[in-house]
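ZP: hey, is the phenylalanine complex queued? I don't see it on the tracker
AM: it wasn't, my bad. submitting now with these inputs:
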Amino acid sequence: MLDLINSIRQSSDEFHIKNADDLDKYRIQFLGRNGLMNDLFEKFKAVEPADKKQYGNVINQLKNDLQAKFDSSKVELESGKDQSISEEWDFTLPVIPDLTGSRHPLTIVRERMIEIFERMGFNLSEGPEIEDDWHNFSALNFPLNHPAREMQDTFFIEKNPDVVLRTHTSSVQIRVMENAKPPFRTISPGRVYRNEAISARAHCMFHQVEGLYVDKNVSFADLKQTLFHFVSEMFGKEIKVRFRPSFFPFTEPSAEIDISCLICKGSGCNVCKQSGWVEIGGAGMLDPDVLKNCKIDSEEYSGFAFGMGIERMTMLKYQVRDLRLYTENDIRFLKQFKSN
Ligand code: PHE
């Protein structure tokens, strides 16, 4: 009998009540109708009358102790005290890192682009997103009412055609040239706006990195080498670059820059529409009239400019098929991009 009493006490001592589930289990196992205490009372009935007093006291004591353990655990759990923190926890263990955040793919690509150009000596310049006609168009040689303005569907605000959401960050280059003396070697990353229907391939808001280099004797060869170097740093040495003649009002000659398709390596696929080439931006030698608009002597100085879209660059780098994903904030999309 005494052995049985002791073993029940020991089991109770070893039973750790950490939550409401445990509390219920404890009650059923020890205090319930088919629990150990009831068994014990059954067995007690068969005890010799002479021994009843001796065992009766011990059993009652045990019952009171188990009930007290149940009651105090219940009070503690209800008061919200955390039972799971016990001596068994090792507080010196390192914490599990919180992996919920990651950098946006556009941020990763923008910073990489900036890093590559900075190492070639370009600094950063910024300008306003709400621009006037002069900086977004006129100074860049887009004459008023000239069809070239239609190249970029523009958002005008406040019914005042002089106030626009900038359609490119070339406007920043005008501000740089107006406000300092050459030489300039600068890039202007930033957000731009065009009045386009949103689709997998177009958005009314996107980001550019435009570059400007003005000095004595800057030539088309400098432009080519700058972009060759950029592409090989960004996408790898095996990627080829091609310049296709094009038109921009502020550059002459002008070119569109293509690179060999990163998916099929030039053999033709649906990303490059079977051509083997994909476009990454525009470039050209600064039109002397643009220099003049900024009061820079175009006999003494020459320069080049280029512009590339960050969304497009990111699509190519990570094979993103739909640029609406960038702004949907779907965590399943965003968490795929890890850097540094
Ligand atoms: N600003 C042009 C655009 O947004 C790109 C460009 C920049 C082209 C510099 C040539 C030189 O389309």
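AM: back. The mean pLDDT is 91.
ZP: great, adding it to the tracker
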